[in-house]
User: Fold these one by one.
Assistant:
Number 1:
Amino acid sequence: MSKINVLIAGSTGYIGVQLTKILVNHKKVNIKYLCGSSSIGKKISYFDKSLSKYKLPKIIKFNKNLLLNVDVIFTALPNGETQKISKLLLKKNTLIDLSADFRLKKTSDFLKWYKIKHSASNMIKNSIYALPEIKRNKIKNKKIISCPGCYPTSILLPLIPLLKKRLISNNNIIIDSKSGYSGAGRGVHKKYIRKNLYESLSAYGIANHRHNSEIQQELDLCSGKKNNFHFTPHLTPMFRGILSTIYIDLIKGVTKNKINSVLNKYYKKEIFVSIAKPDTLLSTNDVINTNNCIISVCKSKHRRKLIILSVIDNLIKGGSGQAIQNMNILYNFKENEGLNA
């Protein structure tokens, strides 16, 4: 198969640049267009000097005629913008979206959590919430591949198998997540101008962070019942990486070894998800610059409780890498093509 042509809309954000850095080394991909708004005419190397050695197109403004010449459109745009592009798609196009535009199946939920009226509700049926290790067999049947948020990726991978198997209580799941500030996008410095991002730790979005909605949707979908969880995110004085600490209550008769065994079995064939030895203390440094998720099942001082640690790189497994993994599945490429560096 010849190379597929791709367009990256929102190419100058942290996710867009990371997408470009991975795709330039993907043997099956040709980067046809890089699109932006305030950066038109600039080279992508302006935003990351490591890209200066590659021959890449200059940044241009998106227009619908570009869709004639591409197979895949990656969108790393502000929420609401990808909906507009979705209505322009041609038969040959596949849209791989890294915003929240198609993560939620109910437009009422999208309005509630994002305060935007969904303008492409008729396209939702053509989309899939594409956590690849969970939805792999359904990805190829959809026109719009909606990539999960970074926090939910780190949370859903350990929890879904356990809720499916009814091994943990679906009440009072407590999730404490800490992310590098790149997860808030390039505008993070303006948004948190009064906070010292480089020397302080900040809780935010308590009880109302937008990622609550997709976590709720996917946990309820996998378990067939309503789940009760508490999710608190934090910004940390590091650029990238996520560590989620998840507190769970065990069902009677279930042990730490059972939990560890089930996770190992569930992910034994997966390239990018690995289960550490029980009680391994994880660091974001274990996964930085990779598409990996590492999960560790740890003891608690309470006999009927466990603590699960989950680490990812928010810009790769929680963003661009997961998007490319989905593309690889879609086109029957090796799933780790371009993602081994």
Note: The chain has a mean pLDDT of 94.
Number 2:
Amino acid sequence: MKDLFLVLVVMGVLGLVFGIVIGFANKRFTVEMNPLIHLVEDILPKGQCGACGFAGCQAYAEAVVLNKDIAPNLCIPGKKPVADKVAELTGKKAEEIEPRVAYVKCANPISTASKKYQYTGVNDCVAASMLHSGPKECAFGCIGLGSCAKACPFNAIEINDQGLPVIDKTKCTGCGKCESICPSKVIQLVPLDAHVEVKCNSLDKGAIKRKYCSIACIGCGICAKQCPYGAIKIENNLAVVDPSVCKEKCSEKVCLAKCPTKAIQEFVV
């Protein structure tokens, strides 16, 4: 009993000593945070999306306040209003950034698409892609298990009954989380005021595409030939639209009518 009491006394004394030492060290070595960091962080959208290139909103707030070389317009979700406020607080100039939204480059439903096998594994696109690039015959198509929707910090993506992501453009901030997580690279950020986009992601040759997808871009080049402004080119068997040329010069959108598979579609906000 005496030994137990002695042990308790010793532990109590040690606890008291360590507490005093830690308290002193905490007070002695505390680094005062610049109050401007809190002001900047308060106006950020708190999506913690990482689109700014930093690990969350607080990390960006610290960087933009303390480092003169960090631009005030890196918060993509906040767009111009947030950039202007950050610039005002930090005394920097906010350059204009073109607003972008996510676009799904696939229209082939997972429910009816030709498949290599029946997938019954983890309900995740990244996991499914590890097995022969996913269950679809098209290795470039949307796998449809919703990894993009789970990753979106702004709830801007839903998976429809066909197993395809649907982007709510009123909620999408263009942060790029969905684009970075998609293993098939089906999701791409495009200008908010784009005129047309190609609803296909496959780099296979046209004849192969037609075997597993009737609405794929077959790389025939009709759209490129018909565009009077050279806004469309065929690269790796796929039509690629230059949105800057398209929106600046084109108003007829002749490519929509000429595309034999309707892979080129009007971009509607």
Note: The longest strand covers residues 100-104.
Number 3:
Amino acid sequence: MVASLPKPSLAPDLAPSQRRTGAFALIDSLERHGVKHIFGYPGGAILPIYDELYRAEARGELRHILVRHEQGAAHAADGYARATGKVGVCFGTSGPGATNLVTGIATAHLDSIPMVVITGQVGRAFIGSDAFQEIDIFGITLPIVKHSYVVREAKDMARIVAEAFHIASTGRPGPVLIDIPKDVGLEECDYVPVEPGAVDIPGYRPTVKGNPRQINAALQLLEQAHQPLLYVGGGAIAANAHAQIQELAERFELPVTTTLMGIGAFDENHPLSVGMLGMHGTAYANFAVSECDLLIAVGARFDDRVTGKLDEFASRAKVIHIDIDPAEVGKNRAPEVPIVGDVRQVLEQLLQRARELDYPTRPHASQAWLNRIERWRVDYPLSAPKYESSISPQEVIVELNRQAPNAVYTTDVGQHQMWAAQFLNNGPRRWISSAGLGTMGYGLPAAMGAKMAVPEQEVICVSGDASFQMNLQELGTLVQYGINVKTVILNNGWQGMVRQWQETFYEERYSASNMQEGMPDVELLCSAYGMKGLVVERPEDLSGAVAAMLAHNGPVVLDVRVKRDENCYPMVAPGKSNAQMLGLPEPQRRELNALIQCGDCGAQSPMTHRFCPECGAKL
């Protein structure tokens, strides 16, 4: 049937102006903006658009991925955007189709992810009449989008799409909603294409260059600091500023800590990396931020899960805050040097000015500070316990990192998310996780979107048994399209983080957090969907099970039965400073001038070295 479809001329061959429907204008505009994949679910109000999409798919120009729930479409578009930096696109029909997208829109909004969300709407004559499946999705989503449109006339479609992509992907990225009444999709107009970037939006002029005076002021603070710390957030990922962050850190010998959103912005194997800070950050990152005298915040927003007790966060430090969103600068912490601009461009300005002024590097001034951080690293390391009769959840993450070090990882939300953040060493755009909204059910559909974006890369979702059940219906989507995503469930039979809080702060009253009863048999579930499911319960079987999962050509769910009562530490309790962490081990108190032997070449190195000076192996 597809082969017998008429073959309309390709979009680039359109005459300058000709009669076309609003639906054609939409699909053609999406193609012109480089869209290759759309995640969605059809319904009555959006059928004119799906009818035009059918023709585009027949031409081989677009591919639609039919999800099993609209929330999965939004999360998949989000994962697609995070894996590539491009705008993700999802479709939903009016009424419940649109409202099912809301959680995914809010997730993207809180994490500043570029998305264009397209919803069907009842016909223009029926708007406001409480027609079947009418809902004011424009009004519902106003607080959680960067901008939104209701298309009133088909002739406006091309301009609106071009504006939506421009707004979603420039400045501080975010989701943009386009609501399209059904009759607008059917209406014909004199269609004039609008090419990407060919829009001028009065009043929308994001600041991208930093103020030169502020650049100079920042360099002066860098020169004066004795205990500086680079604090990197998701804005650095959005700006693709990885190279500039590394150059800045190495030039000034700055230890680097990241937020949950900033993971991957700096090489976590680098000697200057101190890992994630905050509620479940490393002890050495939290001690460093508590003791630093200069905090350089790059694309970070001083979130409460990072700062702990705000008035004690970096209380000894002067602050340089670099962010493209002026609303974030000074919102939670007043900086001595605020710099509004694109993170990558501001850092390039900073580095260029340092070269012009021949600013010295800081190896001597900073060595005592680096030694102090190394002492904390030695005394309070992250550890993955091993048990004789049960598997520790940390052990699972370590094994994944060993066997699939270059995979793209998505996560759901909870203890497993924090363990993954602690023990995986991620590169740029290889860490995809719901941070601001903390959305359970995010990981599987986000992995689906990421795999469609980067099909040549291994994509692994790390989930928990409670989170997995939020959107497990998307296993059907994986099977239908042969999307080779691996899902690893850290199954402790609980809503793990809820249980940990109930144990710690609610005197072990485990109210509505036990998930053991009713957990599906993963092998039977996967068999029902026509895919592979594995279960592992013994520590000695873990490595082989992970290897079998990775070797299988197709989607797999690996259900790992982990120790039920394992808690995620370190942990900063609500209302406490970052230096007041629960669950720290007793200090190991090894001398920093002691020697450590390289396991590869046998050379002796000081304890302060993280890499062997002879062969480069990690110590």
Note: The radius of gyration is 26 Å.
Number 4:
Amino acid sequence: MKNNVYIRLSIALLLSCFSFVAFAQVSATYPEKPIKIIVSFTAGGTTDILAREVGNQLSIKWKVPVIIENKAGAAGNLGTETVGHASADGYTLLASSIGPISINPTLFKSLAVDPQVSLQPLAMLGEIPSVLVVPSTMGVNNWKDFVQYTKTNSNNLNYSSTGIGTAAHLVGYLFTHKTNMDATHIPYKGAEATRDLVAGRISFMFATAPSVIPLIKAGQLIPVAVSSKKRMSTLPSVPTLSEVGVDLTTSTWFGLFGPSGMSPSLIKKINEAVVEILTSSDVKSKLNDLGVDPIPMSSAEFTKYVRNDYSMWAPIVKASGAKPE
């Protein structure tokens, strides 16, 4: 009997050694073929912009094609499902953000793939404050004008978002709640949310900086406040919400994920490559110009960040009464 136990233990130890060697070999040779990064949203949004920049830099670094594939749908759940069911070999990754990862597990009663369980956080890409923007045709040029407009048009206010339960929706909800504003939420699909805003059919929107800064520069949208702790370097004249008396400070984060079950050495290799990219002066400068604050983290730090963020948003989602379409 003892001999059988010893044999089983020896076999288990031997298999673990083989697995360790296999993982090490995978890490040493990775990548050997094209890598696909699934983006949970439509092209042109902030997640897509970040994925393409990081993907391009990874392709240059590793000398293999990095293909960006947009899989928008079901509030970002479609992309999550695709990567959650993928092989944990590092060749199918996910670029996602706060909505699908931190909000959807509470928003939806059931998910085909729980991002808090089936995904491996690999690397934080950055944080971005929300910008409160209005159409230039509204005649609002600053916060004071905006307040006056909301008082004059108190019975006809609305705000758009990139979908029910997204960060844009929930920040808008928190804003109207804290300012006692009666405004109707109008959800859209992904980056399409700014279309009707620019056309003047929407009163305001909380949008991520990279998605609206080009429209601000083109004079199509007017920024009246930002949700960050301090003013943005790209919009230095725009006050924070705290400065104008609204107790609301928040940001939207973006990150890179893989399927759960990836080897520690593979996780480390991908993380270190992304951190190196984010800390390079050229990329950092480019992202800063877009309003993105790159935040390099180890995979362990990012995993902890994601878990804490989920715990923070869960009660807010419940309080908002948001229901998926």
Note: The beta strands are 35-39, 66-70, 92-97, 119-135, 158-161, 184-187, 204-208, 221-226, 251-259.
